[in-house]
Amino acid sequence: MSESKFDFNKFLADSKETLLNPKGFFESMSTTGGMVEPLVKALIYGGIAAVINLLWGLFFGNAITGGLFGGAIGIMAFIGTIFGALIGLFLGAVIILLLSAICSGNTDFEANLRVSASLMVLMPINAFLNVFGLIGGLLGTLISIALGAYGLYLLFVALTKSLGAKVETAKIILYVLLALLLITQIFGYLGKRAMRKSFRELSKYEEMYSEQESDYESYSDDEDYNNEDADDSDYYSNEKPAEFPSKALDLVKENLSDGENMITQEKIDNLIELTKKMNNAQSDSDKLMELLQEYNYSNIADYTNDFTVVMAGITAVSSLNAIEKMLINGSKEEKKAAELYTVDEMLKSAASQSIKAGKLTKADLMLVYDNWEKISNLEKEASVE
After folding, report:
1. What is the torsion angle, in degrees rounded to the nearest 10, for the CA atoms of residue 371, residue 372, residue 374 and residue 380?
2. CA distance 82 to 90
3. CA pair distance 342, 149, nearest whole angstrom
4. Which runs of E-coded beta strand occur in 18-122?
5. DSSP states of 186-223 as a string?
6. What is the pLDDT along the chain (385 residues), one digit of tens a residue?
7. Would you say 225 and 342 are in contact if contact means Cβ atoms under 8 Å apart?
8. Closest CA to 161 of 32, 29, 37
């Protein structure tokens, strides 16, 4: 059977119907006619989404990464979206075919491929709304949930109307996928929020500590105060602790992950080498992409995730060290002052939130301690504008 030429006007009409009248569209959608139409549809949707992602990357890339990567985010997003559309078309068809089979629906690959291509109408919309995710916050999460939920609804309609799947079975699948969507989005939002909160609390502590120095001096007139026990060093600093703060870790050990270690020696060394090289290639987006691939990172997001986890480790150990020096080994007056200004709670919260945000194990924290100077230098390297 010969394949007809692609009709762009029909494409526009079908896209509008898919979004505004999904029941009518999928009920009348042809499940045969060849591979040309679904392939071209996927490329058009992917191309539009790629242009939008490129623009968002160029507009917001510097703001998000502090100028470290520049427009490389947008360029990689463009290329990744094009390839993602092609891969997503066929991968989506396979997944839809499996769901259709579970629901006793049509298992012809072409029919499922055409459904997959039609559902990709959400690609440009998702790309456009990604700006809220780049900015961050609850609004971005709510938009992602709403768009994801509508996508699942379109999938349900396609399964039951185009592929003849059993309605009750398809409903069960819809509810399961919706629950997974909510769990993923909510936990992702809470994780980002916890990380931001931990850094805010650490900054708040540093400001508060400077205000407390005069109050500590007033305690020196008390009869029970021993000047020989006073420690003039900062409780929270970037210097390596004299020893690993294991006693302080016992106070927040319930926050430790019992899963796999998130930090390895190889990961630390790779981050250090890669970050240095990136600083020397800031204006060359092609070079940045080559560097990421050289160190087995598929995109900037993967690199940023590893970097954030390691930084969460050094933040956690710093907070634990401050807990040990002030709340465990500190004098009675220092402990009293910490409680008075709720510094004790802030330090425990900062350590706990950093550990949870990075999903860190005790082994992760000890490895951070052993590589303290390296990680401190890594932080400085990444701060270069």
Report:
1. 150
2. 13
3. 42
4. none
5. HHHHHHHHHHHHHHHHHHHHHHHHHHHHHHHHHHTTST
6. 445 577 889 999 999 999 999 999 999 999 998 888 999 999 999 899 888 878 876 766 544 444 444 445 556 667 777 888 889 899 999 999 999 999 999 999 999 999 999 999 999 998 888 766 554 567 777 888 888 899 999 999 999 999 999 999 999 988 888 888 888 877 776 766 665 665 555 555 555 545 544 544 444 444 443 443 434 334 444 678 888 988 888 988 898 999 899 999 999 888 888 888 877 765 566 777 888 888 888 877 777 888 888 888 888 888 888 888 777 877 776 666 656 556 667 778 878 888 888 899 999 999 989 998 888 877 666 644 4
7. no
8. 29
Q: pTM (2 decimals)?
A: 0.49
Cβ neighbours of residue 13 under 8 Å, at least 6 residues apart? none
User: How many angstroms separate the first and last alpha carbons of the chain?
Assistant: 60
Distance between CA 372 and CA 73 in Å, rounded? 30
| Residue 228 DSSP label | G
